[in-house]
Amino acid sequence: xxxxxxxxxxxxxxxxxxxxxxxxxxxxLRIEDGAPLSVITVVRGEAWIVPTGGSPLLLSPGxxxxxxxxxxxxxxxxxxxxxxxxxxxGQACSRDGVDLSGEIVGVRxxxxxxxxxxxxxxxxxxxxxxxxxxxxxxxxxxxxLLVRPAGTDxxxxxxxxxxxxxxxxxxxxxxxxxVLDRLLDLLVVGVLRSWLATPDSGxxxxxxxxxxxxxxxxxxxxxDDPARAWTVAALASEVGVxxxxxxxxxxxxxxxxxxxxxxxxxxxxAADLLRDPGHTVASVARRVGYSNAFALSAAFKRxxxxxxxxxxxxxxxxxxxxxxxxxxAATTVVLAS
Length: 337
Hints:
Blueprint: H1 3-7, E1 17-23, E2 28-31, E3 37-44, E4 47-51, E5 57-59, E6 64-68, E7 73-76, E8 85-87, E9 93-95, E10 98-99, E11 104-106, E12 109-111, E13 121-128, H2 133-139, E14 145-148, H3 156-169, H4 176-197, H5 205-208, H6 215-224, H7 232-239, H8 243-254, H9 258-273, H10 281-288, H11 293-304, H12 308-317, E15 332-334
Helix pairs in contact: 3-4, 7-8, 9-10, 10-11
């Protein structure tokens, strides 16, 4: 499993919230849902997106913006338009504290439809409502706002996906949620691939290391079979290098020793699996390479400061909450045209 697959693996890629919004100027939406990852594209008109602590950026039709949470942000017809609507946790929508759910005007469509009105802005938004541990390793390195302009040579596939999402969002057929999730995943993966492939993009060291002839195969071995009793010597033997050589090369490229990386990966997998009440701590321990529940619990407590049972309880109480952390300065990356 590569790291980009891990980002959208499992429950993370299911049940995403999708909505088409029809907005007549002046309008301004403040998004306070705390979602770990959101996607916005303009179908018609223009929209300004304003990250907290960042500079406003204009979105034109077909542009795809990826917002990394949980910090709030504003989407508006102009950067100066006062906030009119607030989107809160669970996608609750309100104006001056009054619920606006009654303004749903069609399948996954919100706003005001005026026949013959061609001045309204139409936005398409998709929100991943739960953060999972595997993806956090990539999410933590994303800029606050990542924009892929429409119509670029490298964006042909994503442009097609935007058109498909626009059509499919308003359909109501069996299996429609699954179709929308997969289309949204493909759109996000395409944008992230472009970002990761851009020189000096800020891609994490462990992602860049996947392309190394020695460290790349070692990372895949760890990801594909975390339960195996790996040692540095065993990994080195698999890729045909010396133990010392692998340790040096891995640490240089990834930024931490092989066994430290493996331990972090195992605990990330365990944290995701523990969200499922059908998995016991003992069964999770076996799947991620610990001999028993006690060994996993000890490692989990030592690294994360809480037991697996406490993690499971907190995840059940707030399944879409993002992990606490220090707010970073807003960063914006616009991919080359």
